[in-house]
Amino acid sequence: MSPQDTGTDQHVLTAPLETGAITKVRRLADNQPVTTAEKFKDYIRYTRGRGALEIGAILAVVIIGFVIASIASPAFPFLSANNLSGVISQSIPVLAILAIGVGILMIAGEFDLSLGASIGFSSITFIHVSNSFGWGWGVLAAIAAATGIALINGLIVVITGIPSFIATLGMAFFWTGASIFINGTAPALLRKGKDEALVTLFAGDFGFFRSQLVWMIVVGVVAWFFLHRHKLGNHIFAVGGNASAARAISINPLKVKLLSYALFGAMVGLASILISVRTSSMQPGSTEDYTLMAIAAAVVGGTSLLGGRGTIIGMIVGAALIRIIENGLILGKAPGFYIQLFVGLIIVVAAIFNKLMEGKAS
Amino acid sequence: MTINEDYLLRVEGITKKYGVNTVLDDVSFDIGKGEVVGLLGDNGAGKSTLVKIMSGVVAATAGDFSWDGTKHPHVNRALTESLGIETIFQDSALVPQMSISRNIFMGREITNRLGLMKIKEMDAITSEILDSVVTIEGIKSSKQLVSSLSGGQAQAVAIARAVHFKRSLLILDEPTSALAVRATEALLDYLRALKADGISSVLVTHNLHHAFEVCDRHIVMNHGRKILDVRREDTSVEELTAAVVEGELGIRRYRENATAA
Does domain A89-185+195-357 have CATH number 1.10.3470? Predict the structure, then answer.
C-alpha cells in the first residue's frame, strides 16, 4: 500500500481525457485491502489519527499494572470480586453512558453543561413518579424529562445562536433550582416504587459484574452502529466538522444538532435511572460533578473539543480509564484530593494530546 | 450579450439592492452547455453576490432566471440543487475530519433500508471516482482523511464529487488562489476535461492568467455592472487586465491603443 512497493503492483495506463499526455496511474480500485491482515493495517493507518488506539494502549498498561500490583500485594485488592463488581462494574458504565451522550454532542460541535443538574432533575422525576405510579412510568418519565431538558437547551442554542457553553451553564442553575422547587432540599427516597425486577434490571448483582455493565455494552453497540455506520451519524460528523460544507449539500445543521441534543438527553435519562436505583435516593444539587467527569471521559477518549472527531470506543475507554485510576488511588489509600488533582490534570493533558493529534492529521 | 440558443443557464436583468446600495445593476448573460465561463472583476465588483444568486442562496431584487429553456420565478437552494448547480467554495466544500469516501457520499449516503451505510460499496465507488480523475495524484486510500490532502487534492475531490452526482453546472469560487503551481495546472486541465462530459463551469477568479488559459468566454464585472462579455479568441490577457483594473475606461483605452498600433 505504500509508494515504495509499487514494483509488485499492477500499473494501468490511463490517458487524461483531453491533454493527451500519458501518465502512469496506480488504480485505487484495484488496491482495496483483501486479506484480514491488510484490512487491519488499513484500519490502523486510517483510524490512528482519530485517537482511540493510543488511549486504549494507556488503559491496557494501567490495567496490567494494577493486576500485577494486586497479585503481588493483598493490600491492593484490585482483582477482588467486591472491587470488580461493587466498584468498577458500577462506576464505569454510568460514566461511559454519559460520556457517549456528551461525546455525540461534542462531535456535533455543541456542549451541555447542565448535565449534572439534568441528572438531578430526571432522578427526582424518576423517584417521585415510580413511588406514585410504579417504576415503569418512572423510567419513561425520567428519560422524557432528561430528553426534554436537552431539547430545550438545544432549541435555545440553535435558535438564538448563542454559544452552548453559556446557554447551558445558565440552564444548569435553572434545573437545579427546578429540582429543589419540586422536591425540596431533602433527598428524595425511592421506596414504594422499588421492587426486585427494577433492581435486577438496573442494578442486578451477578457475581463479577452488574446489570449496569450490560446496559453499557448495549448502549455502546447501538451508539456505535448509529454514529459510525448510520447516515445520521455521518451527518453529525459532517455538521460538527464543517457546518457550511454540510449545508452546501442540503444537510440541515440545526436539525442534526437538535437530534444530537435529544440523544444526549436520552443517555442522561438512562444514567439517572442507573444512579437512582443503585443509591435509592437523590438529593438536588449533588450531581454537579458528573458534568465535568463526563466531558473529561469524552475528551480523554479522543473526542475533539472543536467538534467533528470522536469514537464510541474512545468514549468508553476514556470513562474506564478515569474510573480505574480513581479506583486505584482509592485502593492505594491516597487522600481524596488526589482524585481531583488527577482528574484536573488528565483533562488538560488529554486536551493537549487531542490538539497535537489534530495537528498531526492535517 | 452573446447570443446562444443552446444555453443552459440564462440570467436577464439581475439587480440586487441592499437598502439604497445597488450591488448588481441589470446583469444579463448566458452560460452554454459544456461552456467554461470566467467571471472576473476586482473586489467589490459584485462577483460573490452574483454567485450567491446563481446558486440560490440569495434572492435577486429583480431579474429573470431561466434553465434549459424554462423560466423559474422563484429561485432558492432547493431549486438549484434539483437543477444540478453546485457551488464549490474554496475552503468550505469538504469536512477535513472525515475520510474522502465519507465526504464524497456526505448527505447522499448509500444505505440499506435501516439507514445503515454500505461502507464497502461507498469505498469502492470512491476509489473508482478518484481513479477516473486523472489529476488526483498521491492519494493512497479512499479512507484517508481530507485533512491529510493538499489544497489541490481536496479541491479535486470536491469537484469529482459534483461530477459523480451528475451536477451540470459547477461554480468554482476562487479555486486556484490557495493552490501551488502544479496543482493549479492539474485543476485547470481537469476543468477542460469536464467540457467533454457536457458539464459547464463558471470560474470566479482574480487570476486573469488562469482564467484566460481555461475559459471559453470571459465576463468582467465592475461596480455591479457587466462591462465585458467576450469570447477568448476575441480578447487578450491585456484587455481583460485593463477591464478589471480600470473598468470601461480601460477597455476603451486598450482598444484605441490597439487600433492605433
Answer: yes
Instruction: Give chain B's mean pLDDT.
Output: 85
Kindly state the helix (H) or strand (E) to which residue B73 belongs, with its residue range: none
Please give the average per-residue pLDDT across B92-120, as a whole number: 90
Which has the minimum average pLDDT: A305-314, A321-330, B139-148? B139-148
Angle at A128 between CA A127 and CA A132, to 5 degrees: 115
For B78, residues 6+ apart whose C-beta sits below 8 A from its C-beta are A250, B56
Per-residue pLDDT band for A353 (boundaries 50, 70, 90) equals confident
Domain ranges (residues) in chain A: 89-185+195-357
Helical axes A253-279 vs A211-224, angle rounded to 10°: 170
The torsion defined by the Cα of A46, A48, A51 and A57, in degrees rounded to 10, comes to 150
Gyration radius from chain B CA atoms: 19
B143: nearest CA partner in chain A: A46
Whether the predicted pLDDT of A329 surpasses 80: yes
Preferred mutation among A107, A221, A231 to probe B, highest tally of B CBs within 10 A: A231
Interface of B with A in 2-21 (CB under 8 A): none
